[in-house]
Amino acid sequence: MPPPGLVVRQASLTFGDRPLFHGLQARFDAGSWTCLLGRSGSGKSSLLRMIASLRLPDNHHLDLDTSDGTPLAGRLAWMAQQDLLVPWQRVVGNVMLGAHWRGRPTPEDRQRAGRLLDQVGLTDKAGQWPDELSGGQRQRVALARTLFEDASVVLMDEPFSAVDAITRLELHDLASRLLADRTVIMVTHDPLEALRLADRILILQGEPARLVSIPVPEGARPRPLDNVDLQRRQAELVTRLQESAHA
């Protein structure tokens, strides 16, 4: 079944007496990868949590429609900034964590977890404990766990920000390949990351914030670092983010 597109209408969020945004509207095309950027405190992670129907501490509202008219519940996966691996499960158990929560994993679940670990290059780590892994390996396990849910919509909140620059580039390539043909919305602070991965870039700008669409470089994602258009647009995007603090 093809992934749905999403339409956000009348998204509003207030922290205390401070309105972060009001009446936001956005469309996320089916099968596309959208990156949300903005200065710290602009509300981008909160907007992502609102789309996921996760709890927020203050007043908020959002109307969400899907392109196929079917509720999003049960078709959504979340990948956080922290890998959130549980220390009492080995690597393969962490991949199957959703199955553990829903009941006892089946032999088929274990086989699929093994295939996903192979896809992320960690077949030989299946029986290890999380504290035996590097930061990049832990994020690969988190990506495999996200894929295990087989969700058509994936929301990602700065999932690669805690790893070194080279590992991050490798994870870009891996995630772009494994999440192809899903509807992905990712929050990031990294302009280069957004320009490599996104079909569309949206900046939360101003206070109260509004969503501003930014052109992406030419070429298929993940775009190589020597893409001339990527290099040119990186400087433009950094400047735009600097300006957004005063918009």
Largest sheet entry: 6 strands, mixed
Count of all domains: 2
Q: Which strand order spans the largest sheet, edge to edge or round the barrel?
A: 5-6-7-3-8-9
Using the alpha-carbon principal axes, give the shape.
Answer: globular
How confident overall, as mean pLDDT?
91
Straight-line distance between termini:
41 Å
Rg to the nearest angstrom? 18 Å
Uncertain ranges: none
Residue fraction in strands: 15-25%
CATH class of the largest domain equals Alpha Beta
What is the helix fraction of residues, given as a range? 25-40%
Specify the CATH homologous superfamily of the largest domain. Answer: P-loop containing nucleotide triphosphate hydrolases
The tally of strands reads: 9
Q: Enter the CATH topology name of the largest domain.
A: Rossmann fold
One letter per element, helices H and strands E, the order comes to EEEHEEHHHHEHEHEEH
| Number of alpha- plus pi-helical segments | 8
The second-level CATH architecture of the largest domain is: 3-Layer(aba) Sandwich
Describe the fold and architecture:
The strands form two sheets. The chain has a six-stranded mixed β-sheet with strand order 5-6-7-3-8-9, with helices on both faces. The chain is globular, with a radius of gyration of 18 Å. It contains eight helices and nine strands. A hairpin with a 2-residue loop joins strand 1 (6-15) and strand 2 (18-28). It folds into two domains: 1-75 and 181-247, P-loop containing nucleotide triphosphate hydrolases (Rossmann fold, 3-Layer(aba) Sandwich), CATH 3.40.50; 77-150, no CATH class. The protein is an alpha/beta fold. Helix 4 packs across helix 5 (135-148), helix 5 runs parallel beside helix 6 and helix 7 (191-197) packs across helix 8. It starts with 5 loop residues before the first strand and ends with a helix. Helix content is 34%, strand content 24%.
